[in-house]
């Protein structure tokens, strides 16, 4: 009796099960399902990603939650009379965008604190051009600057740098700072 039980268990669990032959038709059906699924997913993801690129109205230059802070003290002797901060645009294509948008203010709460900031672009051809924005005060002001104003930049498909420059001769308060926030490109 024990032997019969062992033989039954061995036969049940250890014996090779017969392989089922898969027909050519079943292989074609499975392949068709996989290819169709892949095609549908490709179309869906392609639409989502292309929609993002084609219909994107804003391209943020800096994804930081804190404003950019350019501190300066032009009162100290022997100190450079220029402060700047540059952002690597990593060969960004801006040819589909028309404006640089930003919010900017001086750090001092004094109404007498007025400043002008130089904005400079540089592309991979090493073409540089700059524009000044003035009237920066202790209150947040939004600026929308046309990229067409940077006439020395002929190729907007491969931008390297965006630089903000504060110069001694362009600020009323010589010991202050500039805060820049919400920097993005728009159509």
Any idea what the shape is?
elongated
The whole-number mean of residue pLDDT values reads 83
CATH topology (level 3) name of the largest domain: Jelly Rolls
| SSE pattern | HHEEEEEEEEE
Query: How would you name the CATH homologous superfamily of the largest domain?
Result: Galactose-binding lectin
- Main sheet, how many strands, which sense, barrel? 5 strands, antiparallel
- How many helical stretches? 2
CATH domain class of the largest domain: Mainly Beta
Structural class: alpha+beta
Strand content: 35-45%
Q: Level of helix content?
A: 10-25%
**Cα separation of the termini:** 87 Å
The count of β-strands is 9
Low-pLDDT residue spans: 51-55
Number of domains: 2
Rounded radius of gyration (Å): 32 Å
Identify the CATH architecture of the largest domain: Sandwich
Can you put this structure into words, describing what you see?
By secondary structure, this protein is of the alpha+beta class. 24% of the residues lie in helices and 41% in strands. It folds into two domains: 2-55; 60-186, Jelly Rolls (Sandwich). The strands form two sheets. Strands 1, 2, 4, 7 and 9 form a five-stranded antiparallel β-sheet that branches. Strands 3-8-5-6 form a four-stranded antiparallel β-sheet, with no helix packed on it. A hairpin with a 4-residue loop joins strand 5 and strand 6. The radius of gyration is 32 Å and the shape is elongated.
């Amino acid at each position: 009796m024990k032997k019969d039980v062992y033989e039954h268990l061995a036969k049940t669990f250890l014996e090779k099960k017969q392989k089922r032959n898969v027909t050519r038709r079943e292989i074609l059906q499975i392949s068709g399902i996989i290819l169709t699924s892949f095609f549908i997913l490709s179309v869906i993801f392609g639409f989502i990603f292309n929609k993002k690129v084609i219909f994107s109205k804003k391209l943020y230059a800096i994804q930081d939650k804190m404003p950019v802070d350019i501190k300066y003290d032009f009162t100290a002797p022997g100190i450079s009379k220029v402060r700047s901060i540059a952002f690597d645009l990593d060969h960004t294509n801006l040819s589909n965008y028309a404006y640089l948008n930003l919010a900017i203010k001086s750090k001092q709460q004094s109404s007498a604190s007025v400043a002008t900031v130089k904005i400079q672009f540089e592309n991979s051809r090493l073409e540089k051009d700059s524009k000044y924005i003035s009237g920066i005060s202790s209150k947040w002001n939004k600026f929308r600057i046309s990229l067409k104003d940077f006439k020395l930049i002929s190729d907007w498909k491969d931008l390297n740098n965006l630089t903000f420059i504060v110069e001694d001769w362009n600020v009323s308060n010589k010991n202050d700072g500039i805060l820049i926030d919400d920097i993005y490109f728009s159509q």
